[in-house]
Specification:
The complex is a heterodimer of chains A (about 130) and B (about 110). With about 130 residues, chain A is α+β, with helices and mostly antiparallel strands. Chain A has a single domain, classed as Histidine kinase-like ATPase, C-terminal domain (Heat Shock Protein 90, 2-Layer Sandwich). Chain A contains three helices and five strands, in the order E-H-H-E-E-H-E-E. In chain A, strands 1-2-3-5-4 form a five-stranded antiparallel beta sheet, with helices on one face. Helices cover about 40% and strands about 30% of the residues of chain B. The longest helix of chain B is centred in the middle third of the chain and has 16 residues, at about 55-70. Chain B is globular and about 30 Å long. Chain B starts with a strand and ends with a helix. The chains are: A alpha+beta (about 130), B alpha/beta (about 110). Chains A and B meet through helix 1, helix 2 and helix 3 of A and helix 1, helix 2 and helix 3 of B.
């Protein structure tokens, strides 16, 4: 298992992506699956940075990568406001450009790209695991 | 992160290259909105060289497409054979709001109508 800790800060999201590139390359995760994980991770971390509130910066965000025979999974744990993306409703698709409000797209991307999504609130932290089948 | 444009007649072609994640989107946001602010009524945005498209990048595209539409213009997107970008646009439903083409010629033909 590979791990990383970053601050819940917009400027550190790219560092998490670089870490993910390295571990997916090391573990020979297929390119299209690595991109899906990369994309989910960006959305999850940006959600924490933008919506996690002040408590999100109280302690580092922990990331871990785990590869099994069936899937490549990333677990993200943060001290921000409790938020369960698994049961959060996704926004209805806008029917016209006029109706389209920026925002709420990240959840659609995470749910659309991951094959497995698990959330729990444990010891005061959001613990979210997303995985892609390999 | 590179973003460039080229004008011809009533058309502007904007080309974006690189990683359109939060950092990349922040980097080009001001230039992108200036380039698509209505100098030409039709704007084609070529995303075929974008290696990564996040929701922040999609938001940026929607904002600029809307503001161009409010000025009477129209934005069209080109994805080439970039399945990552076209798949992401598809999964978020944006493909039904902003027309998407596989190459620049097809987008130009659509404008010429």
């Amino acid at each position: 298992m590979a791990t990383l800790a970053i601050n819940a800060d917009r400027s550190e999201v790219r560092a998490a992506a670089d870490w993910l590139h390295e571990v997916t390359h090391q573990h020979e995760v297929p390119q299209n699956k690595a991109i899906a994980l990369d994309q989910c991770l960006d959305e999850v971390l940006m959600n924490i940075v933008m919506h996690g509130g002040t408590s999100a910066t109280n302690s580092p965000v922990h990331l871990s990568f785990e590869l099994t025979q069936k899937e490549a999974a990333i677990t993200v744990s943060d001290s921000g406001k409790p938020f369960d993306p698994v049961n959060a409703p996704t926004k209805p698709r806008p029917m016209s450009l006029d109706e389209a409000e920026p925002g709420g797209l990240g959840l659609s991307i995470i749910k659309g790209l991951s094959n497995h999504l698990n959330y729990e609130f444990k010891d005061g932290r959001n613990v979210l695991t997303f995985a892609v089948a390999i | 992160m590179p973003i460039n444009f080229k004008d011809s007649d009533s058309l502007r072609l904007i080309t974006i290259d690189g990683r359109l994640d939060s950092a990349g989107s922040d980097e080009i946001a001001t230039r992108f909105s200036a380039m698509s602010s209505g100098a030409k009524p039709s704007v084609i945005v070529d995303l075929s060289q974008v290696s990564f498209l996040s929701s922040i990048g999609i938001r940026l595209i929607i904002q600029n497409a809307k503001s161009l539409q409010n000025k009477g213009g129209k934005m069209l997107l080109v994805t080439g054979d970039n399945e990552h970008v076209s798949g992401t646009l598809e999964s978020t439903g944006i493909s039904s709001l902003v027309p998407i083409f596989t190459n620049i010629q097809l987008a130009e033909q659509a404008i010429a109508g």
